[in-house]
Amino acid sequence: MRYLPNTEYDRRAMLAAIGAPDVDALFRDVPPAARLTKPVDLPNTKSELEVERTLAAMAAKNRVAGAMASFMGAGAYRHHVPAAVDHLIQRGEFLTSYTPYQPEITQGTLQALFEFQTQVALITGMDVANASMYDGATSCAEAVMMANRLTRRTRAVLSGGLHPHYREVVETHAKLTGFKVAAASPDATGNEDLAAMIDAETSCVVVQNPSVFGQIRDLKPLAAKAQAAGALLIVVVTEIVSLGLIESPGAMGADIVAAEGQSIGNALNFGGPYVGLFATRDKYVRQMPGRLAGETVDADGRRGWVLTLSTREQHIRREKATSNICTNSGLCALAFTIHMALLGETGFTQLAALNHAHAVQLAEKLAAVKGVELVNGAFFNEFTLKLPKPAEAVVERLVKKGVLAGVPGGRLWPRKKELGNLLIVAATETNTEAEMDLFARSLAEVL
Amino acid sequence: MDMSQGRVAREAANSDLAPVETASGHRALLQEERLLFEQGREGRIGVDFPKLPKVAEKLNGLKRKAAIGLPDLSEPQAIRHFTRLSQKNYAIDTGPYPLGSCTMKHNPRLNEKMARLAGFADIHPLQPESTVQGALELMDTLAHWLKTLTGMPAVALSPGAGAHGEFCGMAAIRAALDAKGGKKRKRVLVPESAHGTNPATAAALGFTVDSIPADARGRVDLEAYKAKLGPDVAAIMLTNPNTCGLFEPDIIEIARLIHEAGGYFYCDGANFNAIVGKVRPADLGIDAMHINLHKTFSTPHGGGGPGAGPVVLSAALAPYAPLPYVVHGRKGFELVETKQKGASPFGRLKGFHGQMGMFVRALAYMMSHGADGMRQASEDAVLNANYIMARVKDLMTVAFDGPCMHECLLDDRFLKDTGVSMLDFAKALIDEGFHPPTMYFPLVVHGALLIEPTESESRGSLDIFIDSLRALAARAKKGEAAYFQAAPRLAPRRRLDETRAARQPVLRWKPGAETKQAAE
Predict the structure, then answer these.
(1) Cβ contacts (< 8 Å) between B99 and chain A: which residues?
(2) Second label for B29, Cα 20 to 30 Å away, from A392, B62, B132, B498?
(3) Burial class (CB in 10 A: 0-12, 13-18, 19+), A139
(4) What are phi and psi of A120, to 5 degrees?
(5) Strands B233-239 and B264-268: what pairing?
(6) Whole-number mean pLDDT of chain B?
(7) How far apart are CA B325 and CA A258, in angstroms?
(8) Residue B428: how many CA atoms within 13 Å on its side-chain side?
(9) Cβ-contact B200, A318 below 8 angstroms
(10) Nearest in space to A226 (alpha carbons), one of A196, A191, A250, A249
């Protein structure tokens, strides 16, 4: 087996050094009743060539988004990732290193995390960010639980514009860990009155901007009302590129930002692994979940980095930890950091402007199709259409024309028939005008 | 053949060990590297874009007003920056990484290549099912391999890492207890030697944590365990092989007793890599166990993730598995995203469907090894750990008598009266060119050193590591405490001031806040 360096000769010599007659003698603590006497019923060792052939055949059964005109978003976005990003994250020193427990020999990971934390704090407009969470949805649930701890209250108000997967993850944690959730109905226009839902037990208001329908709105009035009632404002961002163009959550008064960072540096990957971003105000840092890299000096007085404030964490605090998280999304965070480094202020702003411009172009073309209505007025790179018939069947028919038309309401809210005609459509820098024209023409044909 | 490993005569080496001052601050291949934010210059860019079409903005007056403050770099600068950073990292690719409990085994590059096939990497999670049949087939195939290797009837694939898997398994247990009228069962038994994530997970789910002591052999104290069982006990969370690197010989009895008491058996599967193909958890009486794909099945640790923590479930817990999951339907593979008749999913743990990129890598690893190769890998991992133990036990102190499983646990009795702490000892190993083993964990022995070589190390590589351990142990006993206390000397940084980092937290760069400046 190509990954195992010991030879039979080595194994015999090692057993002799140990003084064991055979390897099974080393497994003597396993109760005899539980010892497998023959291999499990699975195929034996395969060559690289054979494995590649099998997996490539599976991959070939999927319709690749990049080979179609793809306009899908709703929490996962197809962006162009510069070649340098994937090259750098595959350097073995990054790829095959562990969580930086020995800072003297993991300064590379630690400095990159410190840069990641800085980038996330800057673009969200917050004071401080952690070293990443599993994804945006788990980041959101952790944000709610942090708000519960900070306010000693137990009720979360969720906007109807929150991605339903995020809502479900929060509701799952609520049910299992014992807090209450009040969720507004899904509303594509963003005209919900969340302030009216805040009561004396409310720990936080969770609002996504742009919403899952693509709508953007000014959160300053809501922030003021929530904070006046003693609740925190948690702002969720699933399309982080939007912050290159629109006002940051921090500037709008957010107390915690929980975001999905996939758009920067990371491929679609059928939903994972992604990278959860988590940022907050300085005053709340000791209740923040997750790892943190911090600056310090070494014995010679040279600047360096370590994991810090670990007295919040499970390996020190055990049952009193702020979260049980251990492994996070290190390499995806690195991909984010590298892509963001390449973009810089200039590139990030240009990227966002290009996304918005493409979405405006596309919205105009699609709204001109007979029977199609553009639901929301203000948006970044994603918007919602109301079709004259159920969107799921329309999407299926458009696949045959080479178009991944967007995410139908029925996929995200299977129990809400009234949302079935909605189609959530995204455009990014990757979409050409020819693709947009194909989409509009094909939509007219199938409606 | 030159077997000196580049060693020079002691006399010559000593004369060169004084720090060399260079004008640049660099030290040959060790390049100092400033923060990104200290290198930016307006007017540069690292990504060029197509032309921006002119449109009427639809931003409702919410356009950002202030600058963000990101630095502008060109591509060559960015590449050099991150390449230099990478060179400050120790990694499996550069040397042995015997970090106990973390399983730093070789990460095959085929797995990386497979995960990057466009058919897996460039598909959207919400594409119509008809367009992602291959992806669903891959998830179903991975599930089949995991179920076969563990003997368990069901698996929840979506958890993002081990601790998330623990949360999933314990949530399924909570749901099953609640469904059976066991709402009052709140107490979870956790051995003292457990990973910190176990008590943290139990507490997060509203359970109370009750600690079980270890016996003199480093195993669960069976009598103490029996005394703690009662009608309020929800579950036991037990790592097996345990964190002392030992198989729990009474595990079948432990399972029988918890079931008899009306509770469930959660197994922390972080150490499953020791027994893959040798023992099936189902045959031990386990109800739920997470599998760290980033440990046992070699998806890369990436400096702290991403991981994946699928959870295998017994028939009693299977109905409570979280959404979504894959089934065979009339139209091929289907993804179930809502509650179905006859199932009682406890909810959803994550956006979308799980760590697909990790699933591809883990399946590529499993298929490459096959049933025979995985069994051999487990045996080699156990053999390597026992070999280290056998060859150091005369000079160092083994915490519990062997044989051990995939990792061997030492304690600091051999450093008694030397003035050298286990931390000092570990830092001296850095200068020897090794990543230190896990220190001060598990908490059940004093000054723990937990060594997990994995099956990826050859006997030759182990011999060099063992020689270094022995040389350092001898040196400590000779009274050279100062040598250890000043270690490491040869790493990119000497010992870092962690107290200062925690007392005066600097968690991000701020303009004008540069501390001691490194060279460009």
Answers:
(1) 98, 101
(2) B498
(3) buried
(4) -65, -45
(5) parallel
(6) 94
(7) 26
(8) 22
(9) yes
(10) A196
Residue B354 pLDDT > 60: yes
A-chain residues near B118 (CB < 8 A):
59, 64, 66-67
ipTM of predicted complex: 0.98
Contact check, Cβ <8 Å, A33/B90:
no
Give CA–CA dist B335/B351, Å, rounded.
14
Residue A138, SS3 per DSSP: helix
**Cα separation values, B57 from A247, A429, B346, Å:** 14, 16, 43
* β-strand pairing of B449-451 with B438-439: antiparallel
With an 8 Å Cβ cutoff, are B196 and A345 in contact? no
Residue B246 has which token pair? 């030992």
Cis (ω within 30 of 0) for the bond into A5?
no
Q: Prior bond to B306 cis, omega within 30?
A: yes
- Secondary structure, 3-state, A274-307: CCEEEEECHHHHHHCCCCCEEEEEECCCCEEEEE
Write the single-letter amino acid at A333. Answer: A
Q: Give the count of beta carbons closer than 10 Å to the beta carbon of residue A403.
A: 22
How much is the pLDDT for A48? 98
| Residues across chain B | 520
Query: How many helices (H) and strands (E) would you count in chain B?
Result: 14, 13
Retrieve residue B386's tokens: 């026992």
Nearest to A216 by CA among A381, A71, A364: A381
Q: pLDDT per residue over A37-82, tens digit each?
A: 888 999 999 999 999 999 999 999 999 999 999 999 999 999 999 9
What whole-number percentage of chain B has pLDDT above 90? 89
The number of residues in chain A equals 447
Contacts of A300 in chain B (CB under 8 A): 19, 494
Which residues, numbered 329 to 348 in chain A, qualify as contacts with chain B under a Cβ-Cβ cut-off of 8 Å? 329-332, 334, 338, 340-348
Residue A384's DSSP bridge partners are: A424
Contact B375 A39 (CB under 8 A): yes
Instruction: Give the pairing of strands B187-191 and B325-329.
Output: unpaired
- Among candidate residues A219, A210, A200, the one with its CA nearest the CA of residue A239: A210
In this model, does residue B15 exceed pLDDT 60?
no
Find the residue in B nearest to A3 (Cα): B456
Q: How far apart are CA B243 and CA B271, in angstroms?
A: 8
Q: Closest approach of chain B CAs to the CA of A241, in angstroms?
A: 13
Q: Answer yes or no: is pLDDT of B352 > 80.
A: yes
